[in-house]
Fold each of these.
Amino acid sequence: MTDFLAHLSSWAGVLGMGLLAVESLLSGRFSWLTGRWSIDGVMRLHQMVGRAVLVLFMAHPLFYFLGDIRMSGSGLGLGFLALFALIAVVVMALSRDELPMRYEAWRRSHGLLAIGALGLGLAHARSGGWLGKAIPTVHWALVAFTAVGLLALTWIYFVRPWALLRRPFRVVGLEEVADRTWHLRLQQVSGPSFDYQAGQFVWIKSGSAFGLHDHPFSIASAPARPGSQPGPVALTFLIKAVGDFTKSLGQHCRPGRTVYLDGPYGTFGRGLVDAPRLLLVAGGIGLAPLLSVLQARRDWVTAYGGQLVTHLVIGNRHPGQFFPNDELTDLPGLGLRVDCLVSEPTADWTGGVGQTDAQGLGPLLPQDLAGWQALVCGPPQMMQTVQDVLTGHGFEPHQIHMETFKT
Ligand SMILES: Cc1cc2nc3c(=O)[nH]c(=O)nc-3n(C[C@H](O)[C@H](O)[C@H](O)COP(=O)(O)OP(=O)(O)OC[C@H]3O[C@@H](n4cnc5c(N)ncnc54)[C@H](O)[C@@H]3O)c2cc1C
């Protein structure tokens, strides 16, 4: 029994270390993953694997304890430090929004604690673990796991920023277009062509390409028209002022400043630009990636002809959050219908009143759902409500595509 528990314990530790290394690849910063899967999917997996690592790391000493196996000396201390580092990572991740610390500080601690847990775990296994000594492959696997974590951090913070230096962008416009909503225009200055698909996002790095200050924003403009020559691109973004970075955009993204774009990432809207019937539901600033999809859809019709059906529903709290939108008036061939809903109307508001819930959105939905696809983007709570309304109305899961503005 003791032998069995010793094996169970050691393998739990080794598996935990392996999964912790996988976690560093699920950080949302690798385009071979986040360019194929949605950022929401990658982040969900990241959170699930994080919990599994914690369970395995806790099971490791527990099985030893149950088997009455003793370990002492520095190996024991290192093991507990690794466990504490991991508990801190998970607790800080679960309570991120409640912690009184800036996102950048949180992110730095998250990465450092996770790599610390890997390093301490390796040191613990080297000084006290018997499995790595009995099976050399296990020892080398643990070294490889730690190396993967370190390489992932090196890639994110050194190699990738160095590559971004070759492709600078200049801020050519920054305008407040509605209540706390900014329209940002960037022009690529030089470097390899920046290819993206409608609905994707980038991490905008202002100041230095090597800085920790980068924030994800969806591209609100459309990619190059089908058949056009590759070359420097112009991009637009819609940004809502919510916190440290976005409330001081005038400073970080002052016209004339150089910024760097890490990306593009994400799969939101992929394959849906030419969907025959497309419903787009935007909650507030969630309109940004949908504008990109709408314009790409217009370019697709211009290039290939045909007639599509498109229905855009925009939900905002008050009328001041809507802005004059040229992108929405120049969309021939889309069969576009736009419905605007506000929950707090003013006396002169002539649009719809309500939220994107069963009462507000429900009556606007098509009766015959054949061929319809729905793209939804907005705050997490609104997304859940819209998903429930669409599902209740008869949309199948494969007809609903969502992106949450949260990593
Ligand atoms: C895929 C994706 C696309 C997005 N697209 C847009 C968009 O088009 N327009 C828009 O206005 N907003 C968008 N956001 C949200 C935007 O990234 C945050 O509002 C912004 O980073 C807030 O930063 P802050 O310092 O101003 O606010 P803070 O008060 O520091 O942060 C508010 C919240 O934003 C999140 N956040 C902050 N910094 C980061 C960061 N560096 N990386 C990831 N999350 C962070 C955290 O959850 C934090 O709790 C998007 C988010 C994601 C994940």
Amino acid sequence: MKDKILTIFGGSGFIASELVYKLSENFKEVRVLSRNIEECKHVKVLKNVDVFLYDASNISSYTKYLKDTDVVINTVGILNESSKSTFEDVHFNFVKNLVNKSRENNVEKFVHLSALNADQKGPSLYLQSKGKADEYISSNNDGKFKTVVFRPSIVFGEKDSFFNRFNNLLKYIPIFPLACPESMFSPIYVKDLSSFVEESILTDKYDNQSNDITGPKNYSFKELIKYILSITKTKCMVIPLNYTLSYLQAFAFTYIVPGKIFTIDNFKSLQIDNISTTGLKGKTTIEEIVPSYLSKKNNKLDIYRKDAGR
Ligand SMILES: NC(=O)c1ccc[n+]([C@@H]2O[C@H](COP(=O)([O-])OP(=O)(O)OC[C@H]3O[C@@H](n4cnc5c(N)ncnc54)[C@H](OP(=O)(O)O)[C@@H]3O)[C@@H](O)[C@H]2O)c1
């Protein structure tokens, strides 16, 4: 690999950043493609890494970077649609174009970050669009164009969105009405995920495969929220909501309250457990990692509050 080129899409993201750090030393050159090059400064410090601006909806803005690329990784994804970005465009149309252009440019391996339960017939638009892309990728692989799809449950690590987002929310509210409290998750540590991605690039072990990828333990949504409260010593009353109230909360957050904290599409995704009995398993538990960054962040805030006389 030392004479090869890696091009990675969605460069400013949580998983992409981890992958660039992990993989850069295996390659001669790493091209990080992003819509926000300012957000990719942290990876630019690596000597063989360059960051390039592109537009996912404009094929010619990225085709030139695929020339002489050996491995492509796609980490582009959204959790919610906006007026500018639909699941169909971001999760399917972009992937379809990227696969086609990668093949045309003789890319050897295409690694794609999908999601657990992705399925064209899945309950939510998020899962359907991810599933449609997975199908398209798999239908295009052959001995020359190898593909590897990873389908993770929640991914955790210092910059994750799950634990950090809920920690930030719980700090400021005394009562938390929790939708879909019994939905199950199997969080995978971002460094474990990155090791599997690295192995899939350095070996042929996962060629032309689609792999569920989860952590060593399963937790309900309620258990994860209570875990955050316990390690940060935050006082907040969690009120588990039943199916109807969960749906009503999602309805309110979709159509009335701004910010898309929890949409109807998110609610639909949570109707299937985010766990897997088969597939790849990381070894690292949340208990080994999450306290190191959540309690640190809360302590920092405590210091600010103390300084401010609160
Ligand atoms: N984190 C998890 O728990 C988790 C779980 C299951 C699946 N996944 C999947 O894994 C992939 C990476 O996740 P992540 O946690 O690293 O997500 P992330 O931090 O949000 O990164 C995704 C990246 O996609 C790009 N992007 C976002 N909206 C876009 C749009 N409208 N058009 C084009 N590019 C856009 C952005 O990169 P630039 O701004 O740099 O262009 C963004 O940084 C995603 O496909 C996600 O669905 C993640």
